[in-house]
Amino acid sequence: MVASDMLHSNNNTHVPPPDHPVINPKNYDDLLTVVSAIRAQVDVPLEAEIGIICGSGLGVIGDQVENPIVIPYSKIPGFPVTNVPGHKGNLLFGTIAGKKVVCMQGRFHPYEHQMNTALCALPVRVMHQFGIKTMIVSNAAGGINKNFQYGDLMLIKDHIFLPGLAGHSPLIGLKDPRYGRLFTSLHDAYNKDLRNLAIAVANAKKMRLFEGVFVMSGGPQYESPAEVNMFKTVGADALGMSTCHEVIVARQCGITCLGFSLITNIANLNVENSVEVSHAEVLETAKEAGERASSFVCDIIANM
Ligand SMILES: O=P(O)(O)O[C@H]1O[C@H](CO)[C@@H](O)[C@H]1O
Ligand SMILES: Nc1nc2[nH]cnc2c(=O)[nH]1
């Protein structure tokens, strides 16, 4: 195992202080407690119109936030420990291109938290409480589409949420009517107008940009060649271990979503090929492509 693949090797590892209240991610009043605890930490009103989630190695997007107010996840009750390298573990409030944003510099993956997708998507509900109407979500993903190269960006036009299909929806068990519609529609989960805007931005920057279907598997193991072939057969273009549960919660909240994958590795379709994937490789590609991804996000926000 490569050192940077190891959980617990992240300097930002934290243990929540014992004085934090216990938070149930499916209790609406607990959500309001989390939001109050964040507000209590700063003496300025916090609000945002756009939420951003940085994928593995893509924390550099958060570095574009101007005049940031930085709240470490360790100071937020209910936010679990984040141990995955490449995820800093800060909630940032500030501006990008003059627009108020809140940015998750690091996310929670279901494989880290017993597949508790409601817990992992709790920060989306928190960002909604701070006013976001739009969310830009990013991830590092393995490319299946034969046209993809390392470092390509793929706009997500639709998704296949395997854990959700297997009973791990973040909406299961929500009873409070304040959450909104339990039977959330995903007909426009990755908003067409925002995708068109992103395509126009990419064209103006002369950037390679693809559109495709993202599949979320449970992880944390990468896919076997047979699994990659199965996903290809059902129409997937890229593979990851995040994002879908966040977008579903966002759609329940009425947030308009734009999602993209950074292709950090090429998924292996041939069992005879000995191609090892590692999180170190994922982070290395993200490091090389991170500036391009963050400039893309900033230009999209500037044109919203
Ligand atoms: O989805 P993000 O957070 O970008 O991370 C991706 O990269 C990691 C695997 O290398 C997994 O956590 C996968 O989900
Ligand atoms: N599931 C999955 N997640 C990834 N994240 C980055 N690369 C990959 C990959 O190949 N598969």
From TrEMBL:
Pfam families: PNP_UDP_1
Residue ranges of every copy of the Nucleoside phosphorylase domain listed in the record: 49-302
GO molecular function: purine-nucleoside phosphorylase activity
Gene3D superfamilies tied to this protein: Nucleoside phosphorylase domain
Region (Disordered): 1-22
Keywords: Glycosyltransferase, Phosphoprotein, Transferase
SUPFAM superfamilies: Purine and uridine phosphorylases (SSF53167)
Amino acids binding a purine D-ribonucleoside: E223, N265
Pathway terms, separated by semicolons: Purine metabolism; purine nucleoside salvage
Annotated EC: 2.4.2.1
Record GO biological process: nucleoside metabolic process
Top-level class of the enzyme under EC nomenclature: transferase
Listed NCBIfam families: PNPH, PNPH-PUNA-XAPA, PRK08202.1
Family, as annotated: Belongs to the PNP/MTAP phosphorylase family.
Function: The purine nucleoside phosphorylases catalyze the phosphorolytic breakdown of the N-glycosidic bond in the beta-(deoxy)ribonucleoside molecules, with the formation of the corresponding free purine bases and pentose-1-phosphate.
Protein name: Purine nucleoside phosphorylase
High-level lineage: Eukaryota, Metazoa, Ecdysozoa, Nematoda, Chromadorea
